[in-house]
Amino acid sequence: MSRLIIRKVAVLGAGVMGAQIAAHCANAGVPVVLFDLPAKEGDPSGIARKAIDGLKKLDPAPLATKDRAQFIDAANYGSDLEQLRGCDLIVEAIAEKLEWKLDLYAKVAPYIRPDAIFASNTSGLSIAALDAGLPEALRDRFCGIHFFNPPRYMALVELIATARTQPAMLDDLEAWLTSRLGKSIIRAKDTPNFVANRVGVFSILAVMHHTARLGLGFDEVDALTGPLIGRPKSATYRTADVVGLDTLAHVVGTMQATLPDDPWHAYFKNPDWLAGLIAHGALGQKTRGGIYKKDGKTITVLDVASQGYRPSAGEVAPEVLAILKQRNPADKFAQLRASSHPQAKFLWAIFRDVFHYCAVQLGAIADNARDLDLAMRWGFGWSAGPFETWQAAGWQAIAEAIQADIDAGLAMSPTPLPAWVFDGRQGVHAAAGSWSAAESALKPRRALPVYGRQLYPELVLGEAAPEAGLTLWENDGVRLWSLPARDARIGIVSFKSKMHAIGNEVMDGLLEAIARAERDLDGLVIWHDAPFAVGANLQQVAEACQAGQFDLLEKTVAKFQQVSMALKHSAVPTVAAVQGMALGGGCEFVMHASHRVLALESYVGLVEAGVGLIPAGGGCKEFALQAAALAARAAGGDVFPFIQNSFQTIAMANVSKSALQAVELGFAKPSDDIVFNARELLHVALHRARALAEAGWQPTPVQRAVQVAGRNGIATCEMMLINMREGGFISAWDYRVAKAAATALCGGEVDTNARVSEQWLLDVERALFVDLLKTEKTQQRIVHMLETGKPLRN
Q1: Structure pTM?
Q2: Where do the H-state alpha helices sit in 618-757?
Q3: Which whole-number Å values give the CA distances from 597 to 67, 252, 495, 679, in the listed order?
Q4: Quick check: 3 pLDDT over 80?
Q5: pLDDT in tens, 176-208
Q6: Alpha-carbon distance 603 to 56, whole Å?
Q7: Regarding beta strands 706-707 and 755-756, do their DSSP bridges make them parallel or antiparallel, or are they unpaired?
């Protein structure tokens, strides 16, 4: 772990990036001072204060919960620079103009402590040029720290050292960013646009060039360059709109101005249509129009030929789609290159030119091929980096094809591939490390202690995998295993089902795993990669409904409840290690575990209302128990006030937008652990299970006298529902489902403040669940969800 202690951060610049960097530090509970220019009138810190208020309105939300804004203080350069003396890390994030940055450095330098870290969030300016403008006392603690937008969600941070930067300081900063802020770090060389933007922007320019060369539409290209080739849904031109066309043009301009000797320099220019959009203020998503814009309900796209907009309808040709669905990468690329279809020619060309560019520039821009590939994954959302894609498709065959195109004058540059490409190799990634063109050697990963917390780091193709662990038992649904080198007596159970859906095989597996843990182990961790679990196996439920097997379904629900109770009342501690979605039954398993370790990006919720059902794996019961416990500590002891929020959460199928919000909504507890780097989940969960065991874990007794809201609580919920139904906010069937949820939360048709057992609450929610399953409208909702992936409001 990092020895670096950062108690307070300052961010200089309250623009989009500065404010969101501040927000993510606040998410981690680190106090932040956000600076900007003094306002010309009113509150001198009004510019920064407005930026903080704006963070609460953005979507996707930069703040994990709105109350995290309390950790950010507004300040200005005119009267508040003394506050910098209390800051351990100062991040400059103002506009990308060298002279502006240097002017600011001269102003703030006298107030920065000699032991503080000073860093620039520049996306591509020379770190050496910025360093030259600093006083001598600050230069050994200065570096580049390039966050990607949006900082909360994008994993990549590029760290760029100067010749004077203290190596130990940089190591400590890397560890802090990795564990405290959850970032994935690449050490970039001090070259224009660093690693990810250098390759990513070249890729965009290659796409633009070949779009024009082959006469393709922007929407057609986006259909080709999205998930079909392992890129984000926003593909190329939609991504440009999201980033901002002015921002893209600026980055391209930086490459044009600072890379005059780059063999591809002739392509480092903004096309006329892009300059025209910017001149008319059509900057993309932030101006509600750019390459794409909405016309009523219709999405339209710019047509370069007509200089107007037309409905967006780009599609991939069936013959090209068939090629892209080939499982063998070598066959896929061979067929793309051989095809005469313009879309196939386009795809081969953009891959060829990116491979070519990366091979030629690797030694100049990145320490090794692994760093370049991971930078593209983490910074641009590619499912595989360019070198991984090349290697998977057959290194030598692709290299020969690229060189043949270069020789034929078909590539964007006549520069030949480097000699190392043909040096008898089968790729750039191997068990021993990844190729460094600058050092002509394979380089292993960096071995900082913080990476010991990542038991299963993100690997590149060809890299040696960590140990698979010792299998203790498995069935079709789960694997029970352990890591003897870490802790042989803490079991790990991992779901094997698609999307980790919970069917009979998973429930049977969990019951057996818990029993074996109670007999042979000291604790049990539920862990696997995201999603944690998307809920019950709806396909199994739909098939049983269609067959009229409602007795079987009731037994299945009873088994679900049995698993939940086994998790909660286990003789050994059970720890749920959660990342991504934990929905429906997955959420109920999370709620019933002895303890939770959640990645910040955990989206937890009881979503059964979306398919016309209520939680019946103990979710309603758990909220009823929470309400009873809160009422017991409150004056008057009335349960219903503590039911209202839970009722709304279930009825509206609310899902947390972060682990912090999962605590607010009652799906997790304030005492649970929240981990910012999901790769550290298993490490923390194993240690937590061990700590609970060592503390003398005792199983939670089943409760026999739970105070419930009863009939009056149900009636009060119903009054709320009537108003919503009459106002047109919910349908008649939403009303029916929500009333069932209210009945389960309030303990059924019993007297107000009656005391019932935990099993009674389970029986009530199970009966209501099965009654809903028998109805036509709920069955319609289930089928619609399976067919479309979207809820039906019938």
Answers
A1: 0.95
A2: 619-633, 644-651, 659-665, 681-694, 710-726, 732-745
A3: 21, 42, 17, 12
A4: no
A5: 999 999 999 999 999 999 999 999 999 999 999
A6: 18
A7: antiparallel
